[in-house]
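Regression test case RT-17, inverse folding.

Input:
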């Protein structure tokens, strides 16, 4: 149809026409309805469903500016990156991402599975729900998508070619600014600091030169070390869950970078859920029970990742020098170093930067929110500065508990 021969930003009525014209998912007599459901920082997300049946799809389209702020001019090619990443992840970790039905390079949109029978994990954790299979699912996803796209396993030429396909300077710049730079000095004046915490942040974060030095090292490592194809934004807002299912979405930040960027994001966002539960669950027994589940989940995410990583290495490594005694252990230690560092970076940027998380902002009591923020930021400093000391899930939990002890109720 000529209407879709040139790019334009669609409205719900356009999406209905688009789906009818471009797909065969729905029958010829389908009675379609469409609603814009996106609440993310970058894209427009539409749900299309047939009133006469259970059939439905998601249509995700990229605009040329970020929804979070017009200051961020981002290439609409990110939709291609996301679609290709999802298709690759589906091959490497089947069942853990939505199925892609169509990628349209003209309209810069992707049509994929509707996951309405799942819920966004961040919201579910804020409601203090439990997902007993999550740690197992997410560690399988991370090991399969990270190790199997690295030089340890892939033909080096094929890996370099893949790295060329996945790389958006615009989106990398967003990560470099919002994760690795601005939370620690606010040099662009975009940070949004909770007013009661302003003086503490200026002293404990902006004024900590040792912290800034370590963050500087980490930023340059992120920019220059293309270890594996990372998801690039693997937080609990990018994960759909049911008690029996986990689906990772939104890999538009997919990029060849340090593996620990993904693992650290997952761990950090589970700590945000912990901070929320600690602040908002009034009943002490209920609060202790939920935090115990989160603690176990964090421990399992780290420890299962390690165990599966070693097993996958032994089964799939093709690089001859990767079989050198001691090399696998050294390599895994570097991933754990980065996991700890990124846990600290994510805890910091979501509290100090422009992109907040509801786990923290939804804490209504000002004193409890202040306490939650300081716990997260204090733990973050330890994860970053002492990142080589975190080797087990218990190590991560112990640091968070040390931070909590500094700010008693």
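Golden output:
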């Amino acid at each position: 149809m000529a209407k879709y021969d040139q790019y334009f930003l669609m409205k719900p009525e356009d999406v209905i026409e688009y789906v009818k014209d471009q797909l065969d998912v729905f029958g010829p007599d389908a009675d379609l309805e469409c609603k814009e459901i996106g609440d993310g920082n970058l894209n427009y997300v539409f749900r299309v469903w047939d009133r006469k049946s259970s059939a439905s799809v998601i249509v995700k389209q990229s605009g040329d500016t970020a929804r979070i702020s017009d200051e961020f001019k981002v290439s609409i090619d990110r939709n291609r990156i996301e679609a290709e990443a999802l298709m690759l992840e589906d091959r490497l970790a089947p069942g853990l991402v939505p199925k892609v039905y169509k990628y349209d390079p003209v309209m810069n949109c992707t049509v994929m599975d509707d996951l309405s029978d799942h819920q966004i994990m961040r919201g579910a954790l804020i409601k203090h729900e439990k997902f007993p299979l999550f740690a197992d699912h997410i560690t399988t996803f991370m090991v399969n998508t990270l190790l199997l796209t690295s030089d340890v396993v892939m033909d080096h030429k094929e890996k370099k070619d893949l790295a060329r396909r996945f790389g958006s300077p615009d989106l990398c710049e967003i990560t470099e600014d919002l994760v690795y730079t601005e939370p620690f000095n606010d040099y662009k004046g975009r940070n949004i600091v909770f007013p009661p915490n302003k003086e503490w942040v200026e002293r404990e974060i902006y004024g900590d030169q040792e912290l800034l030095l370590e963050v500087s090292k980490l930023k340059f490592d992120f920019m220059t070390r293309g270890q594996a194809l990372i998801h690039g934004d693997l937080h609990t807002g990018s994960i759909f869950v049911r008690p029996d299912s986990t689906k990772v979405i939104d890999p538009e930040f997919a990029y060849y970078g340090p593996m620990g960027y993904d693992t650290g994001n997952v761990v950090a966002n589970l700590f945000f859920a912990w901070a929320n539960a600690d602040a908002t669950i009034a009943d002490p027994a209920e609060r202790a029970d939920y935090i115990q589940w989160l603690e176990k989940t964090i421990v399992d995410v780290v420890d299962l990742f390690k165990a599966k990583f070693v097993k996958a290495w032994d089964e799939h490594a093709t690089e001859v020098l990767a079989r050198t005694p001691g090399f696998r252990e050294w390599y895994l230690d570097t991933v754990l170093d980065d996991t700890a560092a990124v846990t600290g970076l994510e805890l910091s940027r979501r509290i100090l930067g422009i992109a907040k998380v509801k786990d923290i902002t939804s804490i209504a009591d000002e004193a409890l929110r202040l306490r939650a923020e300081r716990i997260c930021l204090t733990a973050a400093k330890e994860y970053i500065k002492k990142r080589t000391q975190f080797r087990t899930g218990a190590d991560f939990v112990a640091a968070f508990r040390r931070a909590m002890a500094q700010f008693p109720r």
